[in-house]
Amino acid sequence: MVGNVTRAAIISDRRITGLSAVVIAELVAEVGPLWHERHQARLASRSRKRAVGASAKHCMVFVDRLLATLVHLRHGVTHDVLCWFGVDRSTVTRAIGEVRPLLAERGCTISPDMRLRTLDEVVDHLGRAGKTGIIDGTEIRVRRPAVGHKDRDRFISGKNKQNAVKVMVFTDGDGRLLFCSTTKPGSCADITHARELGLVKLLADGPAVEILADAGYQGLGAQTGGRVVTPPHRKFKKNAPDWYEEMHERQRKTHSSRRIRVEHGIAHLKNWRALARHLGRREHMDDTIQAIAGLLSQQQTADRSLA
Fold this sequence. Notes:
- The chain is α/β, with parallel strands linked by helices.
- The chain has eleven helices and eight strands.
- The strands form two sheets. Strands 3, 4, 5, 6, 7 and 8 form a six-stranded mixed sheet that branches. It has a two-stranded antiparallel ribbon with strand order 1-2.
- A hairpin with a 4-residue loop joins strand 4 and strand 5.
- Helix 4 packs across helix 5 and helix 5 crosses helix 11.
- 34% of the residues are buried.
- The model has no long low-confidence stretch (mean pLDDT 88).
């Protein structure tokens, strides 16, 4: 267990955890009781020969468990490196495995009293606020499945020719993170992922909102009544007139400049090195992405309140 001076130094330096001291204090107050409640429920859920609490006591307090999880997500370090918290590697692994799901359940923070956890809630929020949304897919490199795994080839990305999983990122027109989807194997097309998430039905039956997307989502506009806006199709394949080239390029750049904010949102996500290249189990990817999205959105909200 680290000392109070070391713990205070970790909390005060935003470069270590990616979060300000104020946000970390909010996390401790919110997630701490949830962790304690689940820990006690886990102890009482199985038959015991001794009373609850009679076994060995934790050497790693909750604050250190949270800080270890934040450092792991922010810098992508292995659990061996985090042994400087003064505990064994297995204790660090268990701590991260307990805290990460709690962080993943929180959703993306839009305001101190509002969080978005599902795609349905995001569409409703944009409809009520009258804002434009932006979607884009991004890939995260993962370890290749073992030889003989039935889905081994599905994780090979057709774009990057690497083993990856794909995530759909949803931001508003200002680049604020609103939603990160669950993962799909890297071979899944962006438009297929959006359809499987139910985006077409939500937009067709929901409020009138404008969603900007790149060429990978062309076709959704016709299915959603024009609510998904993609770059203009190229009508001339060969020998296009000069006037058409100028018009097409101008329209393409205008659209690109409007949707560039989602690229900034993806870049902020991947500043958390656990998403730059995931070296752990693929089964943990969904929790990792949701946890980082929730932390990043909460920090963005805190920064905006101070601006």
